[in-house]
Each structure stands twice: as structure tokens, then as C-alpha cells.
Amino acid sequence: MQQDNLIPHLFRTEYSKIVAVLYHSFNLKQLEIAEDIASETFLKAAEVWSIKGIPENPAAWLYTVAKNKTKDYFKHNAVVEKQVREAKQLNDIEAAPEFDFSDQNIADSQLAMIFTVCDPGNSAESQICLALQILCGFSMEEIANAFLTKIETIKKRLQRARTNLRNGDFQIKILSEAEIKTRLESVLKTLYLLFNEGYFSQTNNQLIRKDLCSEAVRLTYILTENSLTNTPQANALLALMCFQSSRLDARISDNGEAILLEDQDRNLWDGELIEKGNHYLVHACQGNEISKYHLDAMLAYWHTTPTDKDKWQHILQLYNQLIIIEYSPVTALNRAFAFAKVFGHEKGIQEAEKLKLDEHVYYHSLLGYLYAGINSGKAIHHYEKAVGLTKSRIEKQTLSKEIKRLTEKKAAG
Amino acid sequence: MKEFLFVFRADYKTMPQASPEQMQANTQKWMNWVAGIAAQGKLVDRGNRLMSTGNVLKSDGIISDGPYTEIKESILGYTLVKAASLEEATALAKDCPILSFGGNVEIREINAL
Predict the structure, then answer these.
(1) What is the ipTM of this complex?
(2) Do A332 and B39 count as a contact with CB atoms less than 8 A apart?
(3) CB contact A334 to B (< 8 Å)
(4) A326 with A413, same domain?
(5) CB A337: neighbour CB atoms within 10 A?
(6) I want to staple A371 with a disulfide (CB 3.0 to 4.6 A). Which of A230, A249, A378, A408 is the partner?
(7) End-to-end alpha carbon distance in chain A
(8) Global pTM value
(9) Within its chain, how far is the Cα of A103 from the centroid?
(10) Which of the four CATH numbers 3.40.50.10680, 3.30.70.1060, 1.10.238.10, 3.30.1850.10 does domain B2-109 have?
């Protein structure tokens, strides 16, 4: 890899590891100190490597520099001397010259960091931003791009969230079962939302979507690697992410249009990820627990299984269970679609119209789809409403194409 | 929105003796109906089924093994929904699968304490 590419690449993979290890090894009161040291480390890498070339083991080089910079910080920064006393003594650091960047300690530190960042006191959006910045090494610009938001908005959101974190003073040094239990639900939810942010993102930038999804997978994988957090729910969530990720390449066409599952080129589905999904789903189903993530993962499983005559019956039953556990308009609409697949479009229309989700794009595009072969006039009416409601330019195009087709069909009589 | 209790009643004796396949089909029908209410955001608590055995304690201290000897129908289960009116709640009960087995649904508004 060229140096120009190497540093951003390493930044992504190593920055969050360095921050997590420093933060937990030294009990640094402020997260910002760990982050500053990590940033300075990369700055130095850029300087030194441009002159001397890339070292043999760049990651190890970064860890050594980070370690020395941390020592310097404790030695020379008189301003924080008080904090040093509160934190670990300098002697302790020197007594333990092996700065622990072992795989195990990196994983433990990152796991603890996940639990620190997913503070239910912060809004879900803020938690995701924090996770992207601290756990995934995203820049503010990258976060803003992913959310289609101004950098200024993200900056403010992060500042508020960090203030809350500091005030909350939550820090897991050693992961205990009790502490994990209190936060695991919130952690899983944040990782789920982070994944969805990538999977259903409004942005057309396929690279950003993939990045978000793969980061969510990476962090959830850390959970399944530790016996305390390797719960059925965590496995179900990881299975769900694997199944969904397997279709990432197939669900967007070359010009950025979303492709419906039925129309996707199955050759583009990633078989290896589907296998992984099956693996984690089996693990998730040890025990009797059926969570929302289990149902979502099973739904994703059925969606990747094209040949079963009862497929839609299974899917409908899963949506039934899901909507009973937790109502959401999207689940209600997906369920109505499955209902139509099982009982036909006419009954599907009855079921969908009961939902009265007049403000939802998908409500109208679903009714448009269901009416298409039955009543072109009504189908056009609903598709037009959907066009008026959607913010996505590409969806507008797709819907308009359908309207045109139906109008011509109607005219032809 | 007001809350309503659905009480499901039927005669155990006349309930069809279903094969496992039929039982599964019945469960699916039931789930389709309850989830249809949930999909409208009107399910409060899906409730539970009741076992067919039970006791009735009377004021004279006599315990009898359930009301079944005296009345034909017994309570099979209950569900809680929300709706704007009794009429709307009744409309939600319209597709309840118990109706096709000769059972009935009693719809009662909850008078919260």
C-alpha cells in the first residue's frame, strides 16, 4: 500500500484501538487526552514516514510512539499533575514497560469503550455519532456525509454528548456482569441503528454505506468474542447484520437505484456472509429467548432463501410476532406486504388500508403496487402521493416510471 | 383512546378436535388477527389463554371445579386493545377466529381505577 493510502487506512483501524487502550490502561479522566495523544501519534507518523519511509510493522510503530507520548504527557504536563495523582502513578507505568497492546487487551479495551460510549443518557443519534468518532475513527466530515447533515450540526451534537459522558462519569474498568447487564440492551440497540444507518442510508455513496455496515459488524463481533457479552441477542444481531450485508452489492444498481429483493441478481449475494449469518443464528437460538433481533435475523434468513413454498407464510408469521413485540410503521407496512403475498393483493389492500399511515412514502408505494393490477386509477393516485412525499430523487424516478407505465396502460384501455 | 377488554368464550366440548396441522393453522389464523390489531397500533396487551381447569369459590365456602357443569360456555382467554369507541373496538373483534368455532367475543370498556 502506498503511504498516501496507508495512513488513512491505519487511522481507521488503529486510532480507535489506541484511544481505547490508553483510556482504559491509564484511567485518563478525560477521553480527550487519550484522543489527543492518538492524534499526535498519527501526526508524527506522517512526518517521520515521509522522510524515513514506512516502518516494517506500522501498527507496532504507532503503539510504541503512543506509549512514549503518554509517558511524556505524564512527565511534563504540570497542569494535569493533580489528575496524575488521582490516576495511576507514573511509577506504575514505568514498572510495567510492556505497554499492553496485545490482541486480548485491545479487544477488552474496545469492548469497555463500546459500553462507555453507548450511554442511554444520550440520544440514539448522539450515541451513533460518538461510536463513529471514538470507536470507528470517523472524522466529523465523514459522519456528516453519512447522516447527510452539516458538519456544524454533528460538531454540536458530539460536544453535547461528550459533556453528558463526562458528567455521567461512567467508566468500565473491568467488565463485570452486573454492569454489562445494565447496558447491553442499549449497546445492542446503538449497534443495530448504526448498521441501519449504513444499510438504509439516504446517501448514495456506496462506500460510506459499506463502511458503516462493516464497522457495526466489527463492533458486534467484539461482543460475541467475550463470554460475558456473547448472548443469544448479540448473536442474533450479528446474524442479522451478516444476512443483510450479504446483499449490499445486489440492492443498489449501477445508477444508485434501490433494487427490490425479488429483482436482485442473486449471484451478487455474498455466500460466505450468508453462511456466517447461519452460524450466528444457530448460536442465537440456543435457549428459549426470542428477541426482536432474533425475529429480524430470521426474516433476513427467509429473504435469502428463495425456494420454499411456504416462504411467505413463514415471513408473515415472523412479522406477526415482531409487530406484537414492538409496533413500528415500517414493520406494519412490511407485514401488510407479506400478508398480500400470502392472501393475495385484494386482501392485502384491505389489511394495508387499515393502517392509515397517510404520511408514509412506503404506505402509498405499497398501495400503488397492490392496486396496480386491480385498479390503475387508485394505483396512480397512491404512486403520485408517494412521489410527493419522498425525499429521494432516485425513488421519485422509479415511482414516476411506474406512473407513466400505468397511465399508458390505462389509456390503452 | 380508551382501552377495551376482549373476553373470548366458547364451549370446550364443541371445540373441534384438531390435528397438529390444524392446530398450527389455527395458531396462524389467531396470530394473523392479533398482529393485524397490533399493526394498527391498537394492541395494548395480547393477553393469554386460560387453562381449561379451575375452581370456583362460593360465599358458602363450597369450592366447585369450575363453572362448566352449570354453563355451556367458558372463558378461553383475553386480550387488551385500545380504540376510540366501543364501535371501533367491536369492529376490531370482527375477524376473531373464535367466531368461526361457534365462540364469541365480549367487548368491555375498561373503567380504570
Answers:
(1) 0.88
(2) yes
(3) no
(4) yes
(5) 19
(6) A378
(7) 62
(8) 0.81
(9) 23
(10) 3.30.70.1060
